[in-house]
Design brief:
binds pyridoxal-5'-phosphate; alpha/beta
């Protein structure tokens, strides 16, 4: 099919909720994407953070294909090895807890909302979240999200959430009431424009939650699996959540998510308190396990730190040369460039030069390169980015 035919089918048969960039992707490998005309793009935003190991990681492919041939799906009325193995690996890598597997970030958030409410019943149900946060598009996740634009037209909103300014511990303290059961926060607000939590804020939040008997929920849907330089972002901060939420990169590119709850909370639910048909799917579990192994075997965390130092340094230097950059923010390979002007034209100019990036909050360019990106690829990306910035100023 040529691209005109594909586009016509999209226009006729797909509900038009997505902004599409006009690129027809044929295949991808590592940090590179090829379109259907053979043009090659360097991907600095692979899969919106899903392809943390780059596209089509060979170990993920191998594990997935092996599992596909053995067993594709059985529901959670059965036991199977891949689910047991990944649950153990995730708990051993995080904190003493138990796992509930989901299929997406929003579902991990929903699971946490339900677990917190169940744990706090009958008197406590309210969850404090941050302004500028993003927790997903389902009704509970929307209510948790601290940005009004996502809820427009979808009322009435699920009750039981209070939003407070990010990085302000006094604001959280003041918002606590007798109904409060939990506080949920992202270690780095990604969609919100790359705002990094202060270490002092997250530490104080952990202490506050334990003092007030509140659940401390970390939404690490985009910060986990090495993105910030440690396997989970909380490990940078010397604090441990009661509930940890995962998705995007955790399946090595395949769709899955997880909620890990501390042991003393995990057994709150009774049989059938919560469920999802695809959760813990054997193929996703095999992919997730392979991804976790690859992160360890390939020294990914060391590479994140190394490339991050170089990339952030070069971007600060670029800021001095480029009057359109207002600020460079980020941690690990989760980086934002706030511009003086809208970022969409830069995204377009970058794509013309063979570089894929993203823009959020109108003016913030987002760079989430693959965690195994090479120095030469970072250099090439920087060149193309600078050229794209020059084209708009
Ligand atoms: C992307 C994201 C979500 C939602 O995940 P989906 O898989 O799109 O439902 C939730 N929280 C954070 C922090 C995210 O980045």
């Amino acid at each position: 099919m040529d691209h005109r035919q594909i586009e016509e089918l999209y226009n006729r048969y797909l509900i038009p909720v997505y902004n599409r960039n006009g690129i027809f992707v044929a295949r991808a490998r590592g940090s590179w994407v090829w379109d259907n005309q053979g043009r090659r793009y360097l991907d600095f935003f692979p899969g919106w953070g899903v392809a943390a190991l780059g596209h089509c990681h060979p170990q993920v492919i191998l594990a997935t294909v092996r599992q596909l041939k053995k067993l594709i799906h059985v529901p959670n009325t059965f036991y199977h090895e891949p689910q047991a193995k990944l649950a153990e690996a995730l708990v051993k890598a995080s904190f003493p807890g138990k796992v509930f597997f989901t299929n997406s970030g929003a579902e991990s958030v929903e699971a946490a909302i339900k677990l917190a409410r169940y744990w706090g019943r009958p008197r406590r149900h309210e969850i404090i979240t941050m302004t500028g946060s993003f927790h997903g598009r389902t009704m509970g996740a929307l209510a948790a999200t601290g940005q009004a634009k996502y809820s427009e037209g979808f009322g009435p909103k699920l009750a039981g959430f209070r939003h407070v300014p990010f990085n302000r511990i006094e604001a959280v303290q003041q918002a606590i009431r007798k109904e409060t059961v939990a506080v949920m926060v992202e270690p780095v607000q990604g969609e919100g424009g790359i705002h990094v939590a202060d270490a002092s804020f997250l530490k104080a939040l952990g202490r506050l939650c334990s003092r007030k008997n509140l659940l401390f929920i970390l939404d690490e849907v985009s910060t986990s699996m090495g993105r910030t330089g440690t396997l989970f972002a909380f490990q940078r901060y010397g604090t441990v959540p009661d509930i940890l939420l995962l998705a995007k990169p955790v399946g090595g590119g395949l769709p899955m998510g997880a909620m890990i709850a501390h042991r003393r909370i995990a057994d709150t639910w009774k049989k059938s308190s919560h469920a999802t048909t695809f959760g813990g799917h054997p193929v996703m579990m095999a992919a997730g396990y392979a991804a976790l192994q690859a992160i360890r075997r390939e020294g990914i965390l060391v590479n994140v730190k190394r490339q991050s130092r170089y990339l952030l340094g070069e971007l600060q230097a670029l800021k001095k040369r480029s009057p359109v950059i207002r600020e460079v923010r980020g941690v690990g390979l989760m980086i934002g460039l706030e511009l003086m002007q809208p970022g969409a034209p830069v995204v377009t100019e970058a794509a013309k030069r063979g570089l894929l990036i993203n823009c959020t909050q109108e003016k913030v360019l987002r760079l989430y390169p693959a965690l195994n990106i090479k120095r030469s690829e970072v250099e090439l990306g920087l060149e193309r980015l600078e050229a794209a910035l020059r084209a708009v100023q």
